[in-house]
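Support request, please re-run this one:
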Amino acid sequence: MRRAVLRLAVAGLGLAALFGTTTPAGATAPAATATATSAMASIYGYYPSSESCHSVGRRGVSTGLWPWYTCFPSNQLWALQIPW
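Re-run finished. Output below.
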């Protein structure tokens, strides 16, 4: 009996690794999180300061070029990430 349970556990872990999840079937992530992580994003440009990066990001949102943006430090510059 112990050997059968062990085999089922190993098979379950193998399937979880194959599908990339270990959460139970009933404990799914909220839809907003799944949408945010599945969106494609790319680096639009690199800027010398956080202020200049956010300025370009806000300008793109206000003119409708992209719906959201993120600025984050990348080495000694700031990278502007947008959906693409």
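The chain has one domain: 2-27+38-83. The chain has three helices and three strands.
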